[in-house]
């Protein structure tokens, strides 16, 4: 609340011990700047992501078991490392592998879209000839989708002796034209029809994703963590988690078996994760968390969060037309910038109103607050992406008209390590002490608990201000 502000930016003589006693050991490793590479060590708390993945898979496992109770289908593994078999390619952790009659598997009708060469492409050409693997992505995704397609490229190499095809479908057809897909495909040495990128009308993509593969398709909102396998006879044979190395080994083995089939396995059972009768699209696990993000600076230059690898930085959310709390917060950050002096910690301010806060508006705002462009960065970007940056990367709200009284501290590897109320002088000292310790880290933390300045409140109880 505004009436709690003690105006710490007026405390020009403040010299927090965390700054004056700093013994900084800055990472001397080369700084990554290329937006085409993604390091597996960056991103938000990997323990949180791991926990979410286990919970999602456990929910899936329970649903599958309930759906199959009447058929007494045997379950090969529950993913429980304490009671089940050791994880392997036959028993990926968290996966439920079941025996299903091949005849009962869902049939995928052939579908037609445009490929990266602007030509009509139909999966009917695979009927009776070869199996194919399907995944969904969008080209402007800076992190998860690139990791996905790196995995597909690896599978393409591992299965180079097999007669199999890869089909990658955009969920953002308005932006992902054939020309965009062609350039993107070249980055992965993808050549149709071996590896085809497809685009088309949104309703058609949604139909293919949700009605055929039971994958929720939302424009630039979700990335499925599944790669789906369709066999030579159009049966939805199996699905695999692309970010699970055990499941990727299983994929290679299953594809080789399916590619070797010379006739439909009528009357036989197959081992699969894909027992989907009556399942709704939302039931399938999806990856909904950004591990990094791509926005634009006030100088209209692309900004990738991974560009700050090796540096510690402090971030906040605001919008320039906010008449109250944002002005006070920005004045505080101006004072913090001055007190930091030559200290290398960067400040990153992200607008939650990108429609209004275009680069020119941010440049003027930065000048009004005497922002040093080498130290204090202002960001804007796609109005659909920024809320995800707030809610997923920072675990904060970032919608239009929203802002918080919080500052977020990010470590050298892109992990959000703490959040602090800038109105509280004691929390400022706590924040700068954390900054001090993070600069002295020499390797990524195996485990850490995000610090909530001044309290132990649950992360979901995140205070926000709304301007009427």
TrEMBL record:
Xref: InterPro entries: SCO1/SenC, Thioredoxin-like_sf, Thioredoxin_domain
CDD domains assigned: SCO
Transmembrane segments: 46-69
Location of region: Disordered: 23-43, 443-468
Sorted UniProt keywords: Copper, Disulfide bond, Membrane, Metal-binding, Transmembrane, Transmembrane helix
Domain Thioredoxin, residue spans: 102-260, 284-440
Any one GO molecular function term: metal ion binding
Residue ranges with Basic and acidic residues bias: 28-40, 444-459
Disulfide bonds: 141-145
A Pfam family hit: SCO1-SenC
Binding site for Cu cation: 141, 145, 223
Similarity annotation: Belongs to the SCO1/2 family.
Protein's UniProt name: Thioredoxin domain-containing protein
Species the sequence originates in: Mariniblastus fucicola
